[in-house]
Every structure is written in C-alpha cells, then in structure tokens.
Amino acid sequence: MKRSRKKQQMTVYLDPDLFKAVSDTATRRRQSGSLVVETALSVFFSPEEGTGQAALTRRLDRVDKRLSRLERDTGITVETLAQFIRFWMIMTPALPETSAAAARAQAAERYDGFIEALERRLATGRRLYEDVLPPDAQVSAKDTF
C-alpha cells in the first residue's frame, strides 16, 4: 500500500534576484528556502480580510499609510496657518484708538462671513491641498479616512 505525503513537490524557476532574496531570507532566519517560499505563497493566497499575522500586517500597513497622510495634512494645515499669521502681522498696521470700536464691529462681521464660507467649503468635501498641491501629489477620496 502506497502512503501519500503530506506535502507535494513542485519545481519552479525563479528570477536570479528573487532566488537570491529567498536564499538570503532563509539563511538569515535559519530556515529552509522551501519554508520561506511556502510562507510567502500562503500569505499571497490568504484572503484579504483573513485572520492571522498576514492579515494583521496588511491592516497595520493601511493604518500606517493613513497616519502618514494625516501627518502630512496636519503639517500642511499648520504651515498654512503659520504663513497666514506671519503675513497678516507683517501687512496689518496698528489701528488708531479712535477707530478701534468700528474696526471691532467690522471684524465681527467679517468673521461671520469667514465662518459661513468655511461651512460652505467643508460641505463640499473638497480639501485645500487639492487646490494647492499638483495633481500628481494629491490623494484620492478613497485613500483618506
């Protein structure tokens, strides 16, 4: 009676660079090249929302990309605000005391207008960096939170 083996043998041909990468990984981890390739293939064929270390790694990679985008967006926001404040302080002269009350009233009116414009902008879902950055540096809506 013939006994079947648990694993089956397959011969594959690899690109020399890929073969070297598999060999180096196997040597570094003190494992066989066969085990390295088997692990890589099981990760490749595992379902996207599966369980285990491969799925966790994919999810962590997505979170890392999102955090990187968030960090970039925050940096753009902070830099924009800092540049605006600097420009405003350089360009705005001090008001004489006699016109300060009228200026405060006008500032309150302009602030209300700013808030309305901000609400309209936020309602569109469009971001400032989409207008500022070149198209090849922009992120699509599906890449954001």
Task: Provide a descriptive summary of the structure in words.
Helix content is 66%, strand content 0%. It is mostly helical. Among the domains are: 16-55; 97-135. Helix 1 (16-29) packs across helix 2. It comes from Novacetimonas maltaceti. This is CopG family transcriptional regulator.
A few lines on this structure:
With 145 residues, the chain is mainly α. It has five helices and no strands.
Topology:
Layout: H1 16-29, H2 33-45, H3 53-91, H4 100-124, H5 128-132
Helix pairs in contact: 1-2
Helix content: 55-70%
Which range does the strand content fall in? under 5%
- Intertermini distance: 59 Å
Broad structural category: mainly alpha
Average pLDDT across residues? 83
Largest sheet: none
Cα gyration radius (Å): 29 Å
How many beta-strand segments?
Answer: 0
Uncertain parts: none
Continuous helix count? 5
What are the secondary-structure elements, in order, as H or E? HHHHH
Morphology? rod-shaped
